[in-house]
Amino acid sequence: MKMKRMMCAAMAAAMTVSLAACGGSNSTAETTAAAGGAAADSAEDSGAASSDAVFVIGGSGPLTGGSALYGTAVQNGGQVAVDEINANGGINGYQVKWLFEDDEADGEKAINAYNTLKDGGMQMFVGTTTSGACMSVIAETENDNMFQITPSGTTADITKPANVYRMCFSDPAQGTKSAQYIAENGVAQKVGVIYDNSDTYSSGIYENFVKEAQNQGLEVVGAESFNSESKTDFKTQLQKLKDAGAELVFLPFYYTEASLVLKQADEMGWAPKFFGCDGMDGILDLPDFDTSLAEGLMLLTPFSADAEDELTQNFVAAYEEAYGETPIQFAADAYDCLYVIKAAAEAADITPDMEISDMCEAMKTAMTEVTLDGLTGQGISFDENGEPNKAPKAVVIENGAYKSLE
Amino acid sequence: MSSFLTYLINGISLGSVYAIIALGYTMVYGIAKMLNFAHGDVIMVGGYTVFVVCSTMGMPPLVGILAAVIVCTVLGVTIERIAYKPLREASSLSVLITAIGVSYFLQNAALIIFGADTKSFQSVIHVPSLSLMGGQVTVSGETLVTILSCAVILLALTTFINRTKTGQAMLAVSEDKGAATLMGINVNRTIAVTFAIGSALAAIAGVLLCSSYPVLSSTTGAMPGIKAFTAAVFGGIGSIPGALIGGIAMGVIENLSKAYISSQLSDAIVFSVLIIVLLVRPTGLLGKQIQEKV
Amino acid sequence: MKIKNKTFRQNAITYAMVLLFYLICQGLIMSGNMSSLMKGLMVPICYYVILAVSLNLVVGISGELSLGHAGFMCIGAYSSAIFAVCVDGKIPEMAELLLALVIGAAVTAVFGFLIGIPVLRLRGDYLAIVTLAFGEIIKNVVNAVYVGVDENGLHFSMKDSLSLGLSENGIEIINGAQGISGLPRTATFTTGIILVFITLFIVLNLVNSRQGRAIMAIRDNRIAAESIGLSVSKYKMMAFVISAALAGVAGVLYSHNLSTLQATSKNFGYNQSIMILVFVVLGGIGNIRGSVIAAFILTILPEKLRFLSDYRMLIYAIVLITMMLFNSAPKAIAWRKSIKERFFSGKKAEAGKEAQ
After folding, report:
1. What structural domains and CATH numbers belong to chain A?
2. Within a domain: residue B69?
3. Separation in Å, CA of C138 to nearest CA in chain A
4. Which of A5, A224, B225, C250 has the fewest CB atoms within 10 Å distance of its CB?
5. Cα–Cα distance between A219 and A225 in angstroms, integer?
6. Among B87, B276, B283, B285, the residue to mutate for chain C (most C Cβ within 10 A)
């Protein structure tokens, strides 16, 4: 009994200490921020940009757990962009600091990650990587009036608050455009869908696809689903679609699972046309993946690591050198996010000593004025709803490489 | 009809992977009376070992499988020695939580060592697929090998337990630890051997799982682990033939409900069947009825 | 009399501890000395404490291993969220939260009762797996449900939102895996702490009541308890339903702390149930105060380890294993005892010398 009481006392002591520590660490952060502000003030007085003050841009995404792949890509893609920006003189003459926190792709943890970033002095937010987590963070950023741009959150409602922008296509954009493309080009008449019903991204695209497919007069012969707990075996779903007579199978999910779908269809000896979304990008770079299985696969993607243009090639080279792997679309989206921030920040002429809310207001005005030639599109501009204007490229895989479809 | 056969064969194929994992679960449970939640992650370690040996180092598949078995066996025994043995006399809940800690540890260690990107696993099984009913139904080579290995492992295990001294010792320990000690059986050694066998089975399950579903990430083992645990309980945890029946039944039910009821609700259906079975037979299909002593 | 005083004192310490924690935190918040992270964690700490205390009622007091606690949380969260969306803006915020709490607790209690009927017929690990199965079923079903509302009333579908057949101005309430969005964020630290107090009050009073002693008697010796005429199923069900209802309350708090609600394996899956079980086991099985402290520390710990970046969860796992070994291994307990004895005997000897 005594032992227990001692433990309790010790734990209570630890509690108080940790709380005190929280207060303490925060106050130091505040003082440094104040000092930074003061430095910037004096710098402005002398008319030259101070190198002490920096823009702190934060990002979050899953770095652990089943979706770690995507968060890591955003973290690394952002880092590549920040290193380049800093090497070329920063934004408005100020260096940029890139912070990144793990949000485990969960709404609750994403808020913790966001708050940690705020404690670290973040002024603008690039996140979150996953749609579900993003939905819960937008309430926080709206409250703080913090400028936010998500590299890869696709749910339509994410850009509802005025302070939130998006770099990737939204669910409606992807689902609708896919259906339109299939119908207009007469790719197939009878389509089947397999989607992840535990994932916001996948089920969002699925719904919009089906809606538009009906408008376009396509026949949706079957819609089968899987979930995050059983995402390895697709033979049954494929067999059902095969029996239903599907000529084309729409796969609105990520390439890891898609590679399994392709393999299992091949084992069954069934070869319908396959059509994917931006999550499909990366399938050709999967180490040891038999790319002959992906032959004829069509997808809408804003980015491909094999593109010939100089920007993409430089980015891919820098990324491969730093991280030893080929960047996927998430990394490219994050890279573009930082360059859009740079463009808008330069248009608005913001400085790091501004209040977060003032910075956001200035950025909001500037965002609708800038255009960016990025990795994920030429001449990307933003409307006041926060949506990007860029055209998805339809590509088909031929001889193990993307080939543009016009 | 041919579709039904396909669904059935898919179910059996998925089920036999569950069954091999469930065998490891059930053996450890039968003897150490603990739920080893880290079992699924040992499977993932097996998968990564084969990946490193075969894809990165370019060794032949057989070497890879052998390496996986050795690595997993050593890992299993080490985990038992460090994390579970000190808790032998503690409550079973403490061991359960420690096993969860080990599971987190293995997953995150793999994430740091191998990175977050998914690895595509090159199948180590090179068996031509089988065509039935004039090509209407195809059975892949991986499926054939999985079902076959499942049968072989079951036979070997039963023989081992019934015919060898160590096997008999395992039976004795699972019946009554105290009495087994009195009979001169080294309980600690027997439990270590059980973990070694369970982990070796996990390695083989890892190879088969990754060959059938060729993607590999740090969470590869987690969900099959839970499903296999369910399968082990379904068949009666502690019973070796029960694990086999439970695994295959789970796989078949999962696939048939996906095919004929709803692919959205297939997990809910599988778990509902489990609940119904346990209500009719509270210790699983082949589990022993425990007599309550006053 | 003496025993009563002792339990009274023990309970008073627990309440005082929570009150002290509240006062310190409020002080820090008022004076602006609390980091954003900690401010954001205040409500989560409250619902994790409620979850841990309520699970301890089943695992510690009633002696049944439940792995489906997050499922009850899910029911509480969803039922209250549906209510919140339906009445959003029509009644005052406080009244909404209060009613949501009542609804969440009531709906979860009903589900707890229905699930309890089959579950409590089983024992030990079989009971554990069935609770796990129920938790997964709840999560799976919630992810496949579509609910919408328009002037014709509520619409349900298990397929997709298109098949709801909503009229022009209808709104989708639950949109399958995309969950519920646009929830009011009305949960505050103060309401959270009040709910923690209510939870502690219910559980501590139950434990020290006639019913609580009956529940513990059944845990310790079922046959003996039965033979003196205690109704085993009644008392087990009582603990199970109360625990479920409290988990539902935690779920209401959860859904009123986030603007969107989705059922993922992270928040309502077996992983979460196991996390809550970790709080209970580390805090001491049957020790309510321990659950409160463990839930607090283990909610903060992963956040405080963020500076380790990639190694964060790895270190967390090691800490977890080490704490388990230190807390429960018989050898570690004996070692701790011997250290303590040496320490105390040394002190006693010194005290004796001084007295001389």
Report:
1. 52-169+312-389 (3.40.50.2300), 172-301 (3.40.50.2300)
2. yes
3. 13
4. A5
5. 18
6. B87
Instruction: Provide the token pair at A14.
Output: 């630890």
- The region, left, alpha or beta by phi > 0 then psi within -120 to 50, assigned to residue B213 is beta
Write the CB contacts of B189 (distance below 8 Å, at least 6 apart in sequence). Answer: none
Concatenated DSSP letters for C190-255?
A: HHHHHHHHHHHHHHHHHHTSHHHHHHHHHHH-HHHHHHTT--HHHHHHHHHHHHHHHHHHHHHHHH
Number of domains in chain C: 1
Domain that holds residue B92: 2-9+17-221
Which chains are within 8 Å of A by 3+ CB pairs? B, C
Of residues B29, B98, B290, nearest to C324 (C-beta):
B98
B250 in any annotated domain: no
How many Cβ pairs within 8 Å bridge chains A and B? 96
What is the C-alpha separation between C250 and C245, in angstroms, rounded?
A: 9
Range name among A15-19, A49-53, C106-110, C128-132 with the lowest pLDDT average: A15-19
For C160, the closest chain B residue by CA position comes to B264
Can you count the helices (H) and strands (E) in chain C?
13, 3
Q: Which residues of B touch A227 (CB under 8 A)?
A: 264, 267
pTM, rounded to two decimals: 0.89
Placement of tokens 């000690």 in the chain: B181
Q: Which residues form the domain of C57?
A: 2-355
- Structure letter (DSSP) for residue B81: I
- Total number of domains in chain B: 1
- The pLDDT tens digits for A332-378 are 999 999 999 999 999 999 999 999 999 999 999 999 899 999 898 88
Q: Does A167 touch chain C (CB under 8 A)?
A: no
Would you say C167 and C152 are in contact if contact means Cβ atoms under 8 Å apart? yes
Residue B245 lies in a domain: no
Q: Looking at the partner chain, which of A23, A132, A157 has a beta carbon nearest the beta carbon of C28?
A: A23
| Element of type H or E holding B97 | helix B92-114
**What pLDDT, on a 0 to 100 scale, did the predictor assign at position C350?**
59
The answer to whether A259 contacts B215, with C-beta atoms less than 8 Å apart, is: yes
Give the whole-angstrom CA distance, residue B288 versus residue B239: 8
Report how far apart, in Å, the C-alpha atoms of C66 and of each of A130, A244, A305, C152 are. Answer: 31, 42, 48, 41
**Exposure of C261 in the CB half-sphere (CA atoms within 13 A):** 30
Reported as a single tens digit per residue, the pLDDT across A66-98 is: 788 889 999 999 999 999 999 999 999 999 999
Residue A254: closest CA among A272, A235, A231:
A231
At position B30, the amino acid (one-letter code) is G
Does B175 contact chain C (CB < 8 Å)? Answer: no
Judging contacts by C-beta atoms under 8 Å, the chain C residues touching residue B91 are 285, 328
DSSP C151: T
* Test the B interface: residue of A67, A103, A104, A235 with most B CBs within 10 Å: A235
Cis status of the peptide bond prior to A128, with omega within 30 of 0: yes
Q: What is the torsion angle, in degrees rounded to the nearest 10, for the CA atoms of residue A308, residue A311, residue A316 and residue A318?
A: 140
CA distance to partner chain B, nearest, from residue A112 (Å): 20
Amino acid at C224: A
Supply angle C-alpha A211, A213, A214, rounded to 5: 70
Is residue B270 assigned to a domain? no
d(CA A269, CA B138): 8
The 3-state secondary structure of A136-163 reads: HHHHHHHHHCCEEEECCCCCHHHHCCCC
Please indicate whether, in this complex, the C-beta atoms of A288 and B254 are within 8 angstroms of each other: no
pLDDT of residue B294: 47
pLDDT digits 0-9 by tens, B92-105:
888 888 999 999 99
Q: How far apart are CA C186 and CA A19, in angstroms?
A: 24
